[in-house]
Model the fold of this input.
Amino acid sequence: FTSPPFPKAPNASKCKHKVTSVAGHVFSVDFPSQYQSWDAVDPAELFHAPVVKKPCKGSVVKHLQDEARGVNFIVLWMDCDREGENINFEVLDCCMHLMSGGGGATHYDRVYRAHFSAINPSDIIKAYQSLGKPDKNQSLSVDARQELDLKVGVAFSRFQTRFFQGRYGDLDSAVLSYGPCQTPTLGFVVQRHVQIETFKPEPYWVLDLAVLKQGRICRATWESGRSFNQNKVNSLVIKCREADPPCKARVTSVVSKDKKQGRPTPMNTVALLKACSKALGIGPHAAMQTAERLYLSGYLSYPRTESTAYPKSFDIAGTLRQQAGDNRWGSYVRDLLSEGHNKS
Done:
């Protein structure tokens, strides 16, 4: 980077950049040692117990501290979602007190956050030239969620494990885990499984009328839709066939409407997983792994999102140019580039 070498130090003639990474969260939450005993601690006590943060890997903490020692600035480049914001502050907990000059939190004015939606040169440069600050409130929301998950999960796991032990002979009751997400999801799966297993197909009949006129076929829709009474449908067919004079179809009115088909909008995470499952037969885990690889390669914007709009910084033209040479859809992409694309 040049002119200036670092945007937040415009008077510096040169700047040394040190780049490193973490693999997910640096810390996890747990109960202190006095709450670890299943026998000595009532599950209800866990809702009022304190929680502590423990390093996921001590080597990661040491590595961050070694790299941060004596630096003048810290720029955080985590994914732009709540979890990424929380990891930002986990990194700062490891590093900020080791910055040049010491003093810990007093150096927050020299901490910056890069906001980007895709990993491609234009997005990275834009993010670097418009650095902001990390969002403490988003990080705190993740802290709250982690504490709730821990307390609800551990308390209910201990309670139901004790409750069901010895009640069913074929139940593996070593640990019956409970999760705020996994257990309700399991309930939906079981409910759907029961519906499938107990479903009894029942035959039904429909009237399908096709009128051929001057080489064109017009199909009429039966107002009743479908009927589970075969005799009723058969009697209507016989009535039409034996009518004297023969039955005729008459058009009583014509209604014309203009229909506009909007362009596809960007997908949020749920829509992406549904489309992959329905159209491609790809399960959620494999779909997210593939989407994240494409994101890291610069082909997609960040896949874990609730938004259906491209951010202002996303380089659509640059992304399209990467696909212009493909022998399957390259010609369509080139038309978009020549005629102009609309940004949703």
